[in-house]
Structure formats: C-alpha cells, structure tokens
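Hello,

Following up on my earlier ticket. Below are the two sequence lines again, exactly as submitted.
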Amino acid sequence: MTVRYFLLAVVLPIVIGGLIYLLFRTDSLLMFAWVEQLSLTTLIDRGRAAAAPLRPHLPAFVLFSVPDGVWVFSATAFFARLWHDGPLWMRAGWIGITPAMAIGGELGQIIGVVPGTFDVLDMLAYIIATGGALWIAQRSAAAAALTAPTAAAPR
Amino acid sequence: MHQRNLISFSALSVFVFLAFGSTPGVIEQLQQSSTDGGSAGNVAACQAWVEHSNSLPCYPVNFDAGEMCPASLDMTPIDMSSYYQCMIEGTRCNGDIPDLADAGNCAMPTQ
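Thanks for your patience. The regenerated structure is below:
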C-alpha cells in the first residue's frame, strides 16, 4: 500500500466524513466532546458558523448517508488493499467486515435489534462505498503489479 | 500474515473508535447518569433534541431551546432522557420533507 493510496483512499474519506459531522450535524455527538478535549471547540465553532449558509443547500443524502458511506469506503479500501494477495478466506473476512457491520446494522434496524431507523439511502451509500472501494483497491493493486520489478528475470 | 492480521485488528479498532464519534455522546452520558437515579438531565436531553432538530436541513423553523426546554423539566422526578433520545432517533429528513413517523411513536415516560 503506497502512502498516496493510504492518504487518498483511506485518510481523505474519513476527513471528509468527519468534516460533514463537525460542520453540519448536531453538536451533541460524541466527537464534539473529543473536539473539546483537544481544545478545538473555537475553531470548529468558527467553521460551523462559516459553513452554516451551505447547510440548507446540502441534500439529506450528503448530510446523513455520505459520512457513514465514506467510513465504509475508507475501511474497505484499506483492508482490500492490505489483503489483495492474501488467502481468499482471510481476504473475504477482512474486506467484508466493515460493509457487514454497516449493512448488518441497517438491516438490524428493520427488525428492531439495532437502535435507529432503517434508511434506504444509508444502505445505498454502503453499497456504493463498498463497490467503489473494491474498484479503487483493485486498480491500485493492478498498477502496483505492473510497476513492480520482475523477481527473477532471465539474463 | 501475522503482521497483516495485527495491522488489520489495529486498523479495525481505529475505524470502530471513529464510528463511535458519530454517536450521541451527550445523551449517552445522560442515560448513564440517569441510571444513578437522577432526572436533572432532562433539560440537557431536551436541548440535544432541539439542537438535532434545528440541524436538520428540511426543517423550516428553528426551535427555541429556552422555550422548548424550560428549567421545570429538571424538577420532575421522571427521567425523560430516553424519550428525547427516541425523538432524536425518530426525527429526520426524508429528502426535503421532515420525517416524524418514528418520533410519533416515542412515548413520554410517566413514572
């Protein structure tokens, strides 16, 4: 896994999701307690004030489904790249764990074993995120295989 | 293989930790305190619900927390934090339309 891949496919989505939460969502979330502990409350408050005019223009999908989707994307992209050449059962297990948690949690809301309300847009975000992450990881692995030096080239 | 498993478990821990950041922390703390027998968190729980509602882009009006959550809420012996938690979870947008279907099922505790 290259640093570029890690930053663009793993860190950046998490940062984007975090910013959506911090700038546009209710400040009763646990992450705001972390922000306070890091003494970043003033900075975040300024960011929320600056971003407030944008909020009415953002679709609900962006505000409520994308942050969870990018979390699935980030984790799936990380595990898919890390295990791209691993044994099939290990690869499947690690790559599938976060989509399974997200999609399973959403399905659990239908039958009432998980708190919250089932949202088809959340489910859509998870599926798109999983597919997108697998595609990115596949492309990255293929590119790495093309540029890798051949191990035992005949002289 | 072992190293990759170790990295994977560590990464999974980080991802799960980050996911907890999007949970309603204030309400969780209120629920925790409510198990100790107090109901002094009713106003704060109500304010969290008001803030949640005001943060929804589909809501045409802004609730006034001072009006919606009077100090008298903390004078009642009834713990209402679970009610406001239910209201937070049940108040959402369905596209541009407020979706209160689940919030309507939240029952105000009576004892």
